[in-house]
Amino acid sequence: MIKVDINKEYLTAEEISAFQAAFKRCARRIILATTLAGSGHPGGSLSSLALLLMVYAIAKVDPKNPRGEDRDRVVISHGHISPGVYSVLCEYGFFPEEPFLLEFRRAGSAFAGHVEQAVPGVEWNTGNLGQGLSAACGMAKALKLKGLSRHVFCLMGDGEQQKGQVIEARRWAVKFGLNNLIVLIDYNKLQIGGSIFEVMPQDIAKEVEATHWNLIEIDGHDFQQIFQALRSAILGKVKDPTKPTAILAHTVMGKGISFMENDPKWHGMALPQDLAKSALKELGFSPDELDILMQKRKETPVRFPHQPHDPLPVSIKLPSVTIYPPDKKTDCRSAYGVALAELAKLNNLGEVPKVLGLTCDLEPSVKMTDFKKISPQAFFESGIQEHSTASIAGALSKEDFLTFFSTFGVFGIDEVYNQLRINTLNKTALKVVCTHLGADVGEDGPTHHCIDYLGLLLNLPDWEIYMPADPNQTLHIIYFIAQRKGNIFVGMGRSKVPIVTKDDGSPYFDEGYKFLPGKADWLKEGPHGVIVTYGNMVSRALKAWELLKERGISISVLNVASIRPFPEEDLIKASSFKNILVVEDHLVATGLGVHIASFFAQKGLTVNLKLLGHKEPASSGHPDELFKRAGLDPESITNSMIDLIHGSRS
C-alpha cells in the first residue's frame, strides 16, 4: 500500500516507480475482472487509474475502518469505472483481490457493475452520471458544519460535464464555501458516441472557471503532476483558497494497453479472451491465469459480505405541540413552518446545528422563513436547482443531520424523481416535505398541479408517505418524523383548511393525539359506508358526511394520513361496511384508490368500491371550481356515496 505525505514538495523517484508498478497490477485486475464478467467499462477505468491511485495514497482513509467519521470522502461520480475503483481499493487493502475478480457483476454480489456502498471504501452509489458532484457537495458541507478539517475528493468523467446538474452543483459549492472539495475530471475526450466535442461541444475549462472554481490542468498519467495538483488544492496554494478546486486531467482512454488506447469501443466493452490475454502479456503478467480464474469463477459462489451503510443516527429534541383552536383556519404549510422553527430553537442553537433546511427559491411559500431567522447557518437557499439540491440534501441526511428538503410537489417529486431514486439506493434519511400538491394549487394551472405523486413515490420501496388532514395533524406528523429513521415524504396542499374536530367541537388532533404509522383515523363512524380520504379532501369529505346525515344516511369517514406504512387493519375494518368511496386530489389511475383495490383483491375481500379523483389534468381555476369539475366537491361526493349505497341494494 502506497501512502505519500502531502507536506513534502515532490514525489521521489522510488515513489513514482512504486506508483507505476501499482498501475500495472491494477490494470491487470481491470482486464481480468471485465473479461471474466464478459462486460464492464475497462477503457475509462484505465484512463482514471493513475488519478485513483494518487487520491487514495493521499486521502485520510483507513481500510480497517472505512466508515470512520473523521475521514476524507472519495466520491466516484462516473460509477461505471467500478473495475478501476475496485482494483485500487484492492491495492490499498480494503478487501482481497479474489472476491472482486470472481464476483464482479454477478447476481447478489457487492461488486456491482457501477460502484456501490456495499463495497468497503465506496462512499456513494453512482452510475446515473452527473449526480456524484452533488452528493460530494453534501458531504463537504457536512464536514464543514461538524468542524472536521477533512476533504472530499470527487472523481468525474468528462462526458458527464454535459449534465446540467453538474453546473448546479458547482454553483452551490461556491456559494457555500466548499474549499474542502476537490474534483478530478478524467479528460480522455471520448464517450460512448465518440469524441466528446462531436457528441456535445463544450469548453470544460472555461465552464469551470466561469463558475468561479480554481482550475488546474495536468497530464493525468503523470504521477508527479497529479501529486502536485492535489497538494496545491489541499494546502490552499491555488488562485483563491476560499473556493473549491477542479483538476482537469488530460488522459488517454484505455491507457496502458497499446491496442485499447484512444479507441471509444472499449469505453463500455470488455476485451474478448484472446485480446485480454494479449493485454495481460503486454502488462507483464501470465495470460494463463485468465483460464484458471474463469473456471474458478464458475465454481465459486457469491459470498463476499456487503458492507452496511446506514445513515448516522441523529438525536433530536422535540417541542410540545401547540394546538390550533377550532376557529383557526390556516394552511398545513404554516403549521409545518411553526414545527420547523420550534425544532430549530431546541436543536440548532449549539455549535453544530442538528436540523437542516433546504429549498429552491421558495422559502416564504414553504414557510421556512422563521427557521432561517432562528438558524441561518442551517438554512440553504439553493436557487432554482432542484436536481442538485435533492442529491445534496440526501447526502447531508446520512451525516448525522435531520435534513428537510421543501419545495412544491411538481419540483420536489416529479422533477427530481431520479434523484430521489438514487437517494433510495444510497439509504439516505431525507425528509421531503412538499407543499402545493394537487389541483389545490388552483389558478397556477396543470403545469403546477402535482396529481401523480403517490404513483411515483410508491415505486420507491423505502419511502414512508404521510398526508396530514389539517394543521394540527401536520404538527404531530412533523414532530413524529423528526425522530423517525429513513426517507419520508410529507405532502400538503396550498389552501387553508378547517381544523378537524370531534363531535364535541374540540380539535380531533389535540395534545393527547398520537400519530402512528400504519394507522388511520376514524373521524366519523356510521354503518352505511365509508369515505376513505386524506389531505385536503378530508374537510370536503366531512362536509359530505354532514349532507348525508341530513338525508338520514350515516356513514364513516376514514382519514388515511399514513399511506405508507399502509393501514391494513383499518381498511379490513372498512371492508365490513361494504360500500367504500375513495376520494383524493390525485389521478385515479395511480392514487390511493387503486392501491386499496389491489389490497382488497389480494386479501380476497369483496366490497362495493368507487374511486373519485382526477381522470385527466385539471385546468387553471379556483380550487373549488376544479374540484367540482372533477366530482370532488362535497355535493358530488355526497351524490357518489348515495349512488354507491343504492347500487349495492339493487
Structure commentary:
This protein has a seven-stranded mixed sheet, sandwiched between helices. A five-stranded parallel sheet has the order 1-2-3-7-6, with helices on both faces. It has three domains: 13-299, Rossmann fold; 330-497, Thiamin diphosphate (ThDP)-binding fold, Pyr/PP domains (Rossmann fold, 3-Layer(aba) Sandwich), CATH 3.40.50.970; 521-649, Rossmann fold, CATH 3.40.50. The protein is elongated. Helix 1 (13-37) runs parallel beside helix 4 (97-103) and helix 14 (386-397) runs parallel beside helix 16. It is of the alpha/beta class and 650 residues long. The chain starts with 12 loop residues before the first helix and ends with a helix. It has 23 helices and 21 strands.
Q: How does the SSE layout of this entry go?
A:
Elements: H1 13-37, H2 42-58, E1 73-76, H3 82-91, H4 97-103, H5 132-146, E2 152-157, H6 164-175, E3 181-187, E4 190-191, E5 194-195, H7 196-199, H8 204-210, E6 214-219, H9 223-234, E7 245-250, H10 273-283, H11 289-299, E8 330-331, H12 332-347, E9 355-359, H13 369-374, E10 379-381, H14 386-397, E11 402-408, H15 409-414, H16 417-425, E12 431-435, H17 453-457, E13 464-466, H18 471-481, E14 488-491, E15 496-497, E16 521-524, E17 530-533, H19 538-550, E18 556-559, E19 562-564, H20 568-575, E20 579-587, H21 592-603, E21 608-614, H22 623-629, H23 634-649
Parallel strand pairs: 1-2, 2-3, 3-7, 6-7, 9-10, 9-11, 11-12, 12-14, 13-14, 17-18, 17-20, 20-21
Antiparallel strand pairs: 4-5, 8-15, 13-19, 16-18
Helix pairs in contact: 1-2, 1-3, 1-4, 1-10, 2-3, 2-9, 5-14, 6-14, 12-18, 14-16, 19-23
